[in-house]
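Input structure tokens:
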């Protein structure tokens, strides 16, 4: 696997940090989640394939354990607010002094400086500050955030993983690590580069929800079917639009592409309600009309194209996307079939790997410097 041999310490957090660590783990990195003693592992649903050590980072011995782990690691994923790790004396300055090859990734909402750096926030706040949220929503309605996808995972976890890849590659030449300042505001804005740079192309300029790509047009929208499901229409180019109309039993003379958007939408909506989603798929599949079904998370895994591409893995009732993109020699492997680790489930195992002696481990456990989730026996240490 592409990242085999890379050792990662992921400070336990929510959503963006675990997603970043998940990407690295899926492509072969060994990821240790550093949990707080008494934390809630159930809040992290992206821990599969990772191991957990539970540390008391408010104690000197706990700090020393973390430093020892850091000295033998390649990457740290830190999702704490600015200054938290510095107060504990395990910020990038301290850790990179003893491990100059360390890549220290800081993933926060607003970045490490600026007026908002110390403020709490969530995806909706970061997306709003990036400018992108102003584009999302129907005409005449307030902006609608696309759940917490864009900032948390696109501009946050994914962009941070990209930064780590860049730093790992650069390290092959310099043999030196570096600090990554991954801001979800900036990551979201960068993710939306095309939206910023396309504003003068003529496809924008109208109020939100009245442009071609934001549901303002009848040929880029979703339509309800007879069985209360939906079809997705993206017939942008004239040649594709003609095929789209042909499959509906219409012509461009009847429904011109760039006139009467609302009137055309209403007429097309009525036509889509005359057939089920399956019937429309039979009509549009294999054509260039740019029409596909809108699938639920569950149904996506059973769609023929996704099955052929092995896009998903199903474990019990859970549908899990497989790693993407596909590499021809060193593909990622979904670890979603493995169980999410309990907090401290691998504490003894990890300490033993890092050359802690059995009497040291016993002392750390008894003094609540570390925590082991499973019952253990002295003979096994």
């Amino acid at each position: 696997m592409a990242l085999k041999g890379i050792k990662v310490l992921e400070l336990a957090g929510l959503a963006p940090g675990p997603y970043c660590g998940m990407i690295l783990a899926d492509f072969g990195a060994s990821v240790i989640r550093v949990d707080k003693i008494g934390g809630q592992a159930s809040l992290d649903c992206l821990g599969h394939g990772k191991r957990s050590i539970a540390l008391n980072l408010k104690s000197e011995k706990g700090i020393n354990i973390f430093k020892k782990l850091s000295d033998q690691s390649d990457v740290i994923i830190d999702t704490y607010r600015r200054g938290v790790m510095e107060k504990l004396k395990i910020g990038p300055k301290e850790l990179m002094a003893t491990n100059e090859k360390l890549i220290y990734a800081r993933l926060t909402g607003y970045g490490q400086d600026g007026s908002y750096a110390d403020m709490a926030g969530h995806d909706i706040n970061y997306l709003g500050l990036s400018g992108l949220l102003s584009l999302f929503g129907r005409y005449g309605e307030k902006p609608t955030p696309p759940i917490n996808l864009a900032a948390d995972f696109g501009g946050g976890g994914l962009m941070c993983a990209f930064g780590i890849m860049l730093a790992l590659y650069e390290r092959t030449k310099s043999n030196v690590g570096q600090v990554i300042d991954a801001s979800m505001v900036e990551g979201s804005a960068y993710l939306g580069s095309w939206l910023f740079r396309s504003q003068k192309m003529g496809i924008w300029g109208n109020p939100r929800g009245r442009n071609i790509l934001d549901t303002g047009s009848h040929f880029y929208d979703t339509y309800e079917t007879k069985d209360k499901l939906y079809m997705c229409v993206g017939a942008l180019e004239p040649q594709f639009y003609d095929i789209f109309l042909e499959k509906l039993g219409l012509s461009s003379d009847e429904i011109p592409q760039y006139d009467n958007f609302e009137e055309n939408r209403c007429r097309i909506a009525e036509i889509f309600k005359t057939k089920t989603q399956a019937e429309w798929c039979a009509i549009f599949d294999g054509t260039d009309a740019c029409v596909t079904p809108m699938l639920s998370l569950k149904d996506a895994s059973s769609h023929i194209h996704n099955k052929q591409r092995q896009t998903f893995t199903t474990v019990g009732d859970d549908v899990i996307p497989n790693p993407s993109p596909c590499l021809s020699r060193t593909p990622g492997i979904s670890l979603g079939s493995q169980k999410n680790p309990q907090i401290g489930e691998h504490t003894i195992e990890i300490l033993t790997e890092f050359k802690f002696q059995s009497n040291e481990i016993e002392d750390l456990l008894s003094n609540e410097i570390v925590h082991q989730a499973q019952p253990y026996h002295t003979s096994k240490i």
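DSSP finds 16 helices and twelve strands in the chain. The longest strand covers residues 30-36.
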